[in-house]
Design a protein that fits this description.
BirA Bifunctional Protein, domain 2; globular; 3-stranded mixed beta sheet; 23% helix; 232 residues
């Protein structure tokens, strides 16, 4: 089926912090509905309270401070990562079979390019590295060969539908990453828009993200978020 014949992808932004487990349940429900043709595809933007998530490749030794924040086991790919306020989490629930001919690698590359294009709009040069998941920023000001991660990726595919997605560091507390070895990589650090000296807000980043997604998927349909309650 041609891309332009697919129904519009829905776009939702949660205005308050969303509980992680509730978000996962909402994604699982939506994935089943998309697969069965009972709901449209959805890109959902939100924030979580401070927590760590363990992907399917997580090594227990990379959880340095297990009692610092709640730790959630999750079915997405990848290792340990951090979520918290000031980080834009983007959950992408789309039909990978129809939009990417079932090619998961192509879908991951698409998400990487979405992040890179979004960063470019703010003058940030994001890059990918073989063997290192996510999007990276060179930091020669901090030392030769230094690169910091600005965005993480971790997806899951069920019945041809994606969920989980990506997390972009806008202005989170970067100190919170010290409780884990982010994505199993200890020789490089993490950064954010704020750390790079950019005072962009979540709303500005959301608008830039949406523009990039529209270029790929066509017009989006604004809808209410699946969950808008503030986490306890």
């Amino acid at each position: 089926m041609a891309m332009d014949l697919l129904p519009p992808v829905e776009w939702a932004v949660s205005p308050t912090v969303v509980d992680y487990q509730q978000a996962v349940r909402a994604m699982e429900t939506r994935v089943a509905e998309i697969s069965e043709g009972r709901a449209g595809e959805l890109i959902w933007l939100l924030e979580h309270s401070p927590l760590y998530t363990a992907g399917t490749s997580a090594q227990i030794g990379d959880l340095i401070e297990p009692d610092r924040f709640p730790v959630h086991q999750t079915g997405r790919g990848g290792q340990y990562t951090y979520h918290g306020p000031g980080q834009r989490v983007v959950y992408v629930m789309v039909d990978v079979r129809r939009r990417f001919k079932g090619d998961v690698r192509r879908f991951v590359e698409f998400l990487e390019q979405v992040i890179i294009s979004t960063l470019a709009g703010f003058g940030i040069r994001g890059e990918i590295r073989c063997g290192r998941v996510g999007v990276w920023v060179a930091r020669p000001d901090l030392g030769e060969g230094r690169e910091d991660k600005i965005a993480a990726l971790g997806i899951r595919i069920r019945r041809g539908i994606s969920f989980h997605g990506m997390a972009i560091n806008v202005d989170p507390n970067l100190g919170h990453f010290s409780g884990i070895v982010p994505c199993g990589i200890s020789e490089h650090g993490v950064t954010s828009f704020a750390d790079l000296g950019l005072a962009a807000g979540l709303e500005q980043v959301d608008a830039a993200l949406k523009e990039v997604f529209v270029q790929q998927f066509g017009a989006m349909k604004d809808v209410s978020a699946p969950i808008t309650n503030e986490a306890a």
